[in-house]
Design a protein that fits this description.
By secondary structure, the protein is of the alpha/beta class. Helix content is about 45%, strand content about 15%. Among the domains are: about 10-85 and about 100-130, no CATH class; about 515-810, Glycogen Phosphorylase B (Rossmann fold, 3-Layer(aba) Sandwich). The two termini are about 35 Å apart. It binds ligand 26W.
C-alpha cells in the first residue's frame, strides 16, 4: 500500500497532516544535543557512556548530527518530489568526499554546540573527529570535483541528485616499503558507516549479457533483450547538507547484491563454492574502485560497473516521476550530467528504456535523449579517452551495441549530408573506430548525444575544440562551451583553515562562505601591516598544526622557518613530479659539490603527496626516486637541515586539509597543454600560497586574476610545446647543453641515491634522455630560474605575505558555487530555488 493510492484521509497518504508534519529536529541547545547523543549511544549503540569505545562515541555523534539534519532532508525530498522542478542528475563513477563529520557540523551550524555538549560528557570532539575513516570513492581531481559540486548544488538549493557507486573498497591505502609504494585494501566500511541509509526496498534489477530478438508488433519492429544474468542495485542515500541554508540534497550510491542469494540445490549437492559463485560474481560489481586515473584498462568489470550504476540511476529517476508523466516532457524535468566518459553508456540505456520498454518511436526518443544529456571532459590525454571493443560491449550489452550502431548510422548520414562522401572524415568522426580494434569511442558518442560538451578550464576547452574533438566542434559548434572548475570554500577554507576563516570573517563578515567574490574586499588589507602580521601568524600556526599531524601520523616535521614547498596530486609523468625532483637534486648537488655555500640555500621543505596507479610502473619508480632523494638529502649533514624532502604516504582529502593551509609555495608545473584544469592550484591560492607554474589548465586563469607579480610563471606555453613537438624534440641535446641539468641527472644515474646500484633509476634517466614525452628537460632551466625568483621573493616576508593576501583576495572566482552557476546558465538551465 503506497501513499499514492490510499485515500487522502489515510495517514500514509502524502497529503495527510501526519505525513506532512515536519519531523521535529532535536532542540538546538547544548542540553538538547547531549540528550540526543546519549540517546543514540544507549539505544542505537547499546552501550553506556562509561562502557563506550571511541567508535561507539563517534557513531553516536554522527547519528546525532544526522538527527539534526533529518528534518531538512525529509522536507527537501518531499519538496523536490512535489515541486516537479527540473533537476540535475550528476552521474559520476567517483566521489572523493572526505570525512563527513566536520563538514556536516559546519553546514548545520552545530560545531560549537556539539563541541560543548561532548565536553560536558567528558569527550574531546577532536578525538572523535580523528576516528572517522574518509570514504575514498575516487582517484583524484575528477572524484573530488564531483564532491565539491554536490556541496555547491545543495548550498545553492539546486534540485539535484548525485548518483554513483558505493564501492566496498575505495582508493587503496598507500604505504612505503623501502621507499616503494605498496597498496593496501581500503576497508572503509569496517567500523560501520553512520552517514549512509540503505534502501533495499528501492532496489533496481540490472541485466547483463544474453541476446536480443525482434518481433513485428502491428507493423512496428520491437526489440526484446533477454539477458543472461541480473543483479540487484541497492541504493544507499547520503546526506549532502547545504551550508546553513536548511537544505539537504541526496547522494545516492548503488551497491550490487546478487538477485538470488545462493543456490541451495547446488549447495545441498555439496558444491558449496559453486553455490555461492553467482553471488560473489554479482557482488563483485561494486566491490572495488578502479585505481586508474588516466589509462583505462578496458576491463569487463569496469564496463559492468559503469552500466550498473547508470541503469540503476535512470530507472530510479524515472520511478520518481508521476505515473502519468508524459515522457516527451522529460527534458523539462531532468538533465543528466555525464562526469567524463565513464557514465556515457547512459545514452543507449535511456534510448533502450524509451523505445523498448516505454514503446516510444526511435526519432521521438532520440529527440528527447539529445536534450537530456550533457558531457564534461576532464582530460587531454588521448589514452584517457575510453573506448570499448564492440566484441565486449556486444557480449555484455547486446541491445546497447545495436542502439549505438543506429545512433552512429544516423549521425554519419548527417555528416554525409553536410560534407558529402568524404570517407576520411566519415572514418574520423565515426563513433565506431575500426583500428586497432573495432571499438566504440565513448567521447564521440557523448559529443553526438550530448546537448553540451564542456572542458574544465578556458585553455582546456579551447584545446578540446582544436585538438581532441575538432571535427565535432566544427559539426556542432553550438554544443561546445567551457565551465572552469571550482572548489568548495566550505571544506577547503571554512573547515580546513579556521584561522584564516576567522580573519576573513573579521575583515569581511561571514558572507564570503557562500559568496566567495566578497574576498575582493580583502585587497586594501594587503596594504595594512597589522593585517599582514595577523595573516602571517595564521600561516605559521597552520604550519605548527601540520607538524602535529605529520609527527603523529608519520614521524615527520616541516623544518622550522622553512619555505613550505608543496606538490600534492596523483603521480603522473605529465604533472612532472620529476621536474621538482631534478630541482631538489640540483640544489643538493650544488651544495655537496661546494659550488655554493649551504648558507646560500633558502631553508626549504619540499613536501610531496602522490599515489600512483598500481599498474603504472614508471610512476611507481618516480615515487621510489623521491623517497630515495629524501633519505639522502634529509640525512646529509652538509645540508645543515636547510633542505629536506617529506613524502607522507597515503595522500588523501584529510591530509590535504592539513597540508594546503600550511603551504607557502604551490607546485603546478605540468607540461602546458596536458593538465585539463587542476583544482589543487585553486585550493592553494585560496589558502594564501603563491603558485609556481606553467601556463596550463586553470593556472592561466589564476595568473590572470592574481596578476603576474603574484605568480611565478615559467616554461613553454602550449603553442611552443606544440611547435617543439612537431619540430622533433631531442632531450639528450638539452642535457648536453645544460651543465647544471647534467650534474643533477648524472647524480641520479650514478647510483648515489640507490646505494651505488645504477640500475635502480636507470629507466628514469634513459627515459629522460631519450624520450622525455613531457619535456622535463626542456623546461628545467626556466624552472630553476623561477625557483631562484621564489627564494629571492621569500626573503622579503612582508612582501611575500602581501602577495599571498592578494592571491586570496583575487581567487573568489574559483568557488565551485560559481562553477555550478555557470553550468546552470550555459548547460542545465535549471533555476536555483534559493
Ligand atoms: C578510465 C581511466 C580514467 C579515470 C579517471 C581516465 C581519466 C580519469 C579522470 C578524468 C582523470 C582526472 O581526474 N582528471 C582530472 O580532472 C580534474 C577535474 O576536472 C582536473 O582538474 C584535472 O586537470 C584532471 O587531470
Amino acid at each position: 500500500m503506497t501513499p499514492a493510492d490510499t485515500a487522502a484521509t489515510h495517514p500514509l497518504h502524502a497529503t495527510h497532516p501526519l505525513a506532512l508534519a515536519p519531523v521535529g529536529a532535536p532542540p538546538l541547545t547544548v542540553d538538547g544535543f547531549v540528550a540526543q547523543f546519549l540517546h543514540n549511544l544507549n539505544y542505537d549503540g547499546g552501550v553506556t557512556l562509561s562502557a563506550s569505545s571511541t567508535n561507539d562515541r563517534y557513531l553516536a555523534l554522527a547519528c546525532t548530527v544526522r538527527d539534526y539534519l533529518m528534518a531538512r532532508w525529509l522536507e527537501d525530498q518531499r519538496a523536490q518530489l512535489q515541486h516537479q522542478a527540473k533537476s540535475v542528475c550528476y552521474l559520476s563513477a567517483e566521489y572523493l568526499l572526505g570525512r563527513q563529520l566536520d563538514n556536516d557540523l559546519i553546514a548545520s551550524g552545530l560545531a560549537e554546540i556539539a563541541t560543548e555538549a561532548l565536553a560536558t560528557c567528558g569527550i574531546d570532539i577532536a578525538e572523535l573527529r580523528g576516528h572517522e575513516i574518509e570514504p575514498g570513492l575516487g582517484n583524484g581531481g575528477l572524484g573530488r570535483l564531483a564532491a565539491c559540486f554536490v556541496d555547491s548544488l545543495a548550498t545553492l538549493g539546486v534540485p539535484s541528485t548525485g548518483y554513483g557507486i558505493r564501492y566496498e573498497y575505495g582508493i587503496f591505502r598507500q604505504t612505503f616499503e623501502d621507499g616503494q609504494q605498496v597498496e593496501q585494501p581500503d576497508a572503509w566500511l569496517a567500523l560501520g558507516s553512520p552517514w549512509e541509509f540503505p534502501h533495499p526496498e528501492q532496489a533496481q534489477t540490472i541485466s547483463f549479457g544474453g541476446a536480443t530478438s525482434t518481433s513485428d508488433d502491428a507493423g512496428v519492429t520491437r526489440t526484446r533483450w533477454t539477458p543472461a544474468w541480473t543483479v540487484h542495485a541497492v541504493p544507499y542515500n547520503y546526506m549532502v547538507p547545504g551550508f546553513q541554508n536548511g537544505r539537504v540534497n541526496t547522494l545516492r550510491l548503488w551497491s550490487a547484491v546478487a538477485t538470488d542469494a545462493f543456490d541451495l540445490r547446488i549447495f545441498n549437492a555439496g558444491d558449496y563454492e559453486q553455490a555461492v559463485r553467482a553471488q560473489t560474481f554479482a557482488e563483485n560489481i561494486s566491490k572495488v574502485l578502479y585505481p586508474e586515473d588516466s589509462t583505462p584498462q578496458g576491463k569487463e568489470l569496469r564496463l559492468q560497473q559503469q552500466y550498473f550504476f547508470v541503469a540503476a540511476s535512470i530507472a530510479d529517476f524515472l520511478d520518481r516521476l508521476p505515473a502519468d508523466f508524459d515522457l516527451a516532457r522529460l527534458p523539462d524535468r531532468v538533465i543528466f550530467q555525464l562526469n567524463d566518459t565513464h557514465p556515457v553508456i547512459a545514452v543507449p540505456e535511456l534510448m533502450r528504456v524509451l523505445v523498448d520498454e516505454r514503446g516510444m518511436d526511435w526519432d521521438a526518443a532520440w529527440a528527447i535523449a539529445q536534450q537530456c544529456f550533457a558531457y564534461t571532459c576532464h582530460t587531454l590525454l588521448p589514452e584517457a579517452l575510453e573506448v570499448w571493443p564492440v566484441e565486449l560491449l556486444g557480449r555484455l550489452l547486446p541491445r546497447h551495441l545495436e542502439i549505438v550502431y543506429r545512433i552512429n548510422e544516423e549521425f554519419l548520414a548527417a555528416v554525409r549530408a553536410r560534407y558529402g562522401d568524404d570517407e576520411m572524415r566519415i572514418r574520423d568522426m565515426s563513433i565506431i573506430a575500426e583500428f586497432p580494434e573495432r571499438s566504440v569511442r565513448m567521447a564521440y558518442l557523448a559529443a553526438v548525444a550530448g546537448s553540451r560538451v564542456n572542458g574544465v578550464a578556458e585553455l582546456h576547452s579551447q584545446l578540446l575544440r582544436e585538438r581532441v574533438l575538432p571535427a565535432f566542434a566544427e559539426f556542432f559548434p553550438q554544443k561546445f562551451t567551457n565551465v572552469t572548475n571550482g572548489v568548495t570554500p566550505r571544506r577547503f577554507l571554512r573547515l580546513a583553515n579556521p584561522g584564516l576563516s576567522a580573519l576573513l570573517t573579521e575583515a569581511l563578515g561571514d558572507g564570503w562562505v557562500t559568496d566567495l567574490d566578497r574576498l575582493r574586499g580583502l585587497e586594501p588589507f594587503a596594504e595594512d601591516p597589522s593585517f599582514r602580521a595577523a595573516f602571517a601568524e595564521v600561516k605559521a600556526a597552520n604550519k605548527r598544526r601540520l607538524n602535529d599531524v605529520l609527527q603523529a601520523r608519520d614521524g615527520m616535521a616541516v623544518g622550522d622557518g622553512h619555505l613550505v614547498d608543496v606538490m600534492v596530486k596523483r603521480l603522473h609523468e605529465y604533472k612532472r613530479q620529476l621536474l621538482k625532483v631534478l630541482h631538489v637534486v640540483s640544489s643538493y648537488e650544488s651544495v655537496v659539490s661546494g659550488r655554493i655555500p649551504v648558507s646560500a640555500l633558502q631553508p626549504r621543505t619540499v613536501l610531496f603527496g602522490a599515489k600512483a596507479a598500481p599498474g603504472y610502473t614508471m610512476a611507481k619508480r618516480i615515487i621510489h626516486l623521491i623517497n630515495a632523494v629524501g633519505s639522502v638529502v634529509n640525512t646529509d649533514p652538509r645540508l645543515d637541515g636547510r633542505l629536506q624532502v617529506l613524502f607522507p604516504p597515503n595522500y588523501n582529502v584529510t591530509l590535504a586539509e592539513s597540508v594546503i593551509p600550511a603551504a607557502d609555495l604551490s607546485e603546478q608545473i605540468s607540461l602546458a597543454g596536458k593538465e585539463a584544469s587542476g583544482t589543487g592550484n585553486m585550493k592553494f591560492a585560496l589558502n594564501g600560497a603563491l603558485t609556481i607554474g606553467t601556463d596550463d589548465g586553470a593556472n592561466v586563469e589564476i595568473r590572470e586574476l592574481v596578476g603576474d607579480d603574484n605568480f611565478f610563471l615559467f616554461g613553454m606555453a602550449e603553442p611552443e610545446v606544440d611547435r617543439l613537438d612537431r619540430a622533433g624534440y631531442r632531450p639528450s641535446e638539452v642535457y648536453q647543453a645544460d651543465a647544471e641539468l647534467r650534474r643533477a641527472i648524472d647524480l641520479i644515474a650514478s647510483g648515489a641515491l640507490s646505494g651505488g646500484d645504477r640500475s635502480v633509476f636507470e629507466p628514469i634517466v634513459s627515459n629522460l634522455l631519450y624520450e622525455d614525452r613531457f619535456m622535463v628537460l626542456a623546461d628545467f632551466s626556466a624552472y630553476v630560474a623561477a625557483q631562484a625568483r621564489v627564494d629571492a621573493a621569500y626573503a622579503d616576508q612582508d612582501a611575500w605575505t602581501r602577495s599571498a593576501i592578494l592571491n586570496v583576495a583575487r581567487c573568489g572566482f574559483f568557488s565551485s558555487d560559481r562553477s555550478i552557476r555557470d553550468y546552470i546558465d550555459r548547460i542545465w538551465h535549471t533555476p536555483p530555488t534559493l
